[in-house]
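Extended Data, panel c. Modelled sequence:
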Amino acid sequence: MSAMKGKILLPAIFVATFALSRIPGLLPLNFSAAYALVCCAGVFFSGALAWALPLGAMLATDIGLNVYYSAHGVSVWDLPDVENQGFNYTALALLFLLGRGFRQHCSFFKLVGGGLLGAILFYLVTNTASWLFNPFHNPEYTKNLAGWIIALTKGTGGYPTTLEFFRNTLLSGGLFTALFAAAHKLTAESPAEKTAGTREPEAEAEAEAKPEEAKA
């Protein structure tokens, strides 16, 4: 019963937490469970579930958000928007591979450190891609070292600085990774549950020897 609980409850916690975190206006910009979801799915799940769960959750919520913003007059289906989302999915794929490098029984602090590292990786990849391809034609993103530094620190005019986004990315990566690691701990089988219903080898040997003794 506990094993089945963990197999169903843990993915449900991951998806529900991620979906709630994407409600428009609920959390600050770039304060997202996406980084932790993808990284922790790579750590705690196996087989097709490891990649299908985060990919399905991301696609479903992205489509839902695009429909919502489109209904409110925001352009979300233009080519630059789609390209920008493509950059994000590429970075999240790297986070998934990072998660695959960890083991389920890594220490709590090592997993949180992995979540923070994943947030840093996401920040570097997405902002470097925005500078390199510049899908929104930001004039600040000149193709030189100065333009790259602006993309990593200041960003484009009219929006919060890139460093503010990075702060939220880093905080949310650590926070949600800790939450998902705690959820895994709570839903995992205890050693007693894993051995429930099994007999020690010595007990089995004694049980097999008793019929022989009775014959003698």
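The chain has a mean pLDDT of 84. This feature is highlighted in the accompanying rendering.
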